[in-house]
Task: structure prediction
Amino acid sequence: MKKLNKNRIGRKVVLLLFVSLFSTSIALGQTEVFKNVVNNLAFYKQKKEIKFLGFAKKSIDSLIRTRADSADLKKSVYKAIVYSSIASLDSLNKLNQPVDFFEKTRQFIDKIASDRKSYKYQTDIDYAKHCIANVFLRKGFAYTRISDYNNAMQAFLSAKKYAPDFKNLNAYIAYTNNRLGNLLIAAKYYNDLLKTDSTKAEYIEAAANTFKAIGDTSRALKILQNGRKYFPDDKVLLLDEANIYNNRLDYQSLELLLPKLLEQNSENEEVALVGAKCYEYLHKFDKAEALYLHSIELNNTIVDPIYSIGLLYLKRSLLSTGEQSMQYIVTAGQWLEKANDIAPNDAKCLQLLKLIYTKTGERDKLDQINNKLKLLTNQ
Result:
């Protein structure tokens, strides 16, 4: 059974940076000693000019000159805020920091975070960690763009270490594992992602596709069914669920989706064709006929709906008697002749035409069909 076509480029997880300066409130108050540091951070926030982060760095560096200064946790936290902001926001390195600046900043933040008194500055340390996570995210996205999914995955895992509550990271880790063929790992991360209140239709689709890829169609179906409770009008999720029913030949379940499916895809000949076959299987022949005709109206160059409507009329002839039965046979022959014009070497279509011409007594056409069948058999 043909899979329903989504008629679009497959949706991908959108990778976006999640932190900007002061996206979380910084708790440190402005005292006279830190006035220049705080003011320059504020100027950056207002004007978005990297130079002010450079000024803030010079200010905090000037306050940390001795071993006692380095042991001052408050000064260290200010340094962590400034340095992590530069690492996160100066992606083009306009401030000309050394190559190891980010790594040393990361190690410094790890060190102060391990201080038993750091709980006093938890909000500020969390901000610095988010900045570090942001750098790892940027690295992960850069690796993703060049299809280096091993390094991308490691970068996203590192980002998760510093921002464990950023749920979208599960999507990025799942995505890279999926591209690496680690489908079971990807499925785990997608499954965790679906447990959150902020899940997205894209995640539901990706999770369902992953479970289908590992052969767990039942799990994929449950994900889609649950997902559509939150996104009942999502076109892609509806198509995915319909595809599973269609592939399983579960036409009773598929029929329940058809009204909305046909409404959302009124110009899609494949959807109309699948709907027609569903109604035909359920012996709702009038609805099936209407959808076959609609599919042909949308695209009269494909053989499937033309052949199928011919077969439908032939089936109806067997369920009728007398003149009505003969009329269905004649109509079936007209459609199957059109199908034969498109696919002249289709043996099944030729056999059906042979049956029809035998019933209608059209000897010349019957001879032509027999000759065609002999040629095909001898090839």
